[in-house]
UniProtKB/TrEMBL annotation:
Residues 14-147 form the N-acetyltransferase domain. Keywords: Acyltransferase, Transferase. The keyword tRNA processing does not apply. InterPro entries: Acyl_CoA_acyltransferase, GNAT_dom. SUPFAM superfamilies: Acyl-CoA N-acyltransferases (Nat) (SSF55729). This is N-acetyltransferase domain-containing protein. Coiled coil: none annotated. One of its GO terms (molecular function) is acyltransferase activity, transferring groups other than amino-acyl groups.
Length: 147
């Protein structure tokens, strides 16, 4: 999906901050709860992100409490959003919409086009992304091949 320029309201009620070493357990928890990963797979994946040079792992804080994460990678004038998740108990409160607005505003203000990938069967996420201006530009099906 790619963001199509549209007017964005300012976002003031949340904080996006660079992830720190102390955030690793929360990042793992978010991957387990939001994406259904095993703890071991989530831990391995989260540790691998620490080696990426052009990526920012951001923690999402609301009223001083960490409620989510989002990874933003920049390359060749494009910003890509990955691993965006909000704890289930904080979903449906507009936090995700506000985070996306903030990231889009920050990235587009420096000239980046903003992109993301999403599971096409995730209607909730698709609705959120479309609501802030993302449009589907490519779709790919995955199949399980049994040996």
């Amino acid at each position: 999906m790619v963001w199509q320029e549209k007017s964005l309201q300012p976002v003031e009620d949340l904080t996006l901050r660079q992830a720190e070493v102390d955030d690793l357990d929360m990042r793992i928890r978010l991957s387990v709860e939001a994406f259904g990963m095993s703890r071991e797979d989530a831990q391995s994946m989260e540790r691998s992100f620490e080696k990426e040079g052009n990526t920012n792992m951001l923690m999402i804080d609301v009223n001083g409490q960490t409620v989510g994460k989002i990874r933003v990678s920049q390359k060749d004038g494009q910003a890509w959003i990955y691993g965006f998740s909000i704890l289930p108990e904080h979903q449906g409160k507009g936090i995700g919409r506000n985070v996306l607005r903030r990231v889009i505003k920050d990235q587009s203000s420096v000239g980046h086009s903003v992109h993301l990938e999403v599971e096409t069967k995730n209607d909730h996420a698709l609705g959120l992304y479309k609501a802030v201006g993302f449009q589907i530009v490519h779709s790919q099906d995955y199949y399980l091949y049994r040996l």
